[in-house]
Amino acid sequence: MANILITGANGQLGTELRNRSFSLLDDVFYTDIEELDITNFKAICSFIETHDIDTIINCAAYTAVDQAEEDEEKAMKLNRDAVANLANAAVKLDCLLLHISTDYVFDGTSDHPYTEKDPTNPQSVYGRTKLEGEQAIKKSGCLYLIIRTAWLYSGYGHNFVKTISRLASERDELNVVNDQWGTPTYAGDLAEAIIRIMERDDLPELEGVYHFTNEGACTWYDFAKEIVAITGAKCKVNPVTTGEYPSKAKRPAYSILDKTKIKETFDLEIRDWREALKSCMATF
């Protein structure tokens, strides 16, 4: 039995966790800013003590990658400082912290899928603040699991799948970047994996950093073409280069994550990104 606190519960991953069932023996408390301000250390400690929390799943983050370049203070507050608060509260009150991080901690220059042991080198404010959140967790001395993911989408909130689906119904053509490689991740599949992980009794022995995405790899152009095909729209998708589609924040050109560690440690089977995409879009 566990008492689980989920932060950022109104986001994509948090909502997918709400829609799934933890163990019947677990009590799960879903919170977002209205219920718990994780930038307030005392408020976190009070909540943990009041509800006898022993596990924290942190889904909260500042994820507006381009906006972060202009609002570094806000990104730092949520991606580093709030995470440090959760980690320090976990140490003080003896909790496990499971934290969601990102492929943006890497620079995107690799020629092989990134493992958990590869050196980090973020190229954007978003990536740097997320890495500093990871570092704050390790520095705190709390018991932790960090799961890095990438290209997250769901049927909720704002994401690439929903945006492309909408634009494909409104336009005859779309230009999409074809020189950035990664793996789309259905938040529902990540939620299922987290629940599986929470069922383990030996988590203190499995502390560390893990990678999770769906299987396979593609470019944003490939991803968009698959989305449009599933919608049945007649919209043409054109491949363009990153240089033709400039953005404020630098994106990794290659951010495929190696999932060997999480699959072997937790005996997970992960489905291909195309299969997961069809499953998600069927719920729209």
Automatic annotation (TrEMBL):
One GO CC term, this protein: cytosol
Pathway entry: Carbohydrate biosynthesis; dTDP-L-rhamnose biosynthesis
Gene Ontology biological process terms in this record: dTDP-rhamnose biosynthetic process
Keyword NADP attributed: yes
UniProt feature coiled coil, ranges: none
Keywords, sorted A to Z: NADP, Oxidoreductase
SUPFAM superfamilies, per the entry: NAD(P)-binding Rossmann-fold domains
A GO term for molecular function: dTDP-4-dehydrorhamnose reductase activity
Enzyme Commission number(s) from the entry: 1.1.1.133
Reactions listed under catalytic activity: dTDP-beta-L-rhamnose + NADP(+) = dTDP-4-dehydro-beta-L-rhamnose + NADPH + H(+)
Enzyme class: oxidoreductase
Protein family (similarity comment): Belongs to the dTDP-4-dehydrorhamnose reductase family.
Function according to Swiss-Prot or TrEMBL: Catalyzes the reduction of dTDP-6-deoxy-L-lyxo-4-hexulose to yield dTDP-L-rhamnose.
PANTHER family (alphabetical): DTDP-4-DEHYDRORHAMNOSE REDUCTASE, METHIONINE ADENOSYLTRANSFERASE 2 SUBUNIT BETA
Protein's recorded name: dTDP-4-dehydrorhamnose reductase
Naturally occurring in which organism (per UniProt): Butyricimonas faecalis
Gene this chain is encoded by: rfbD
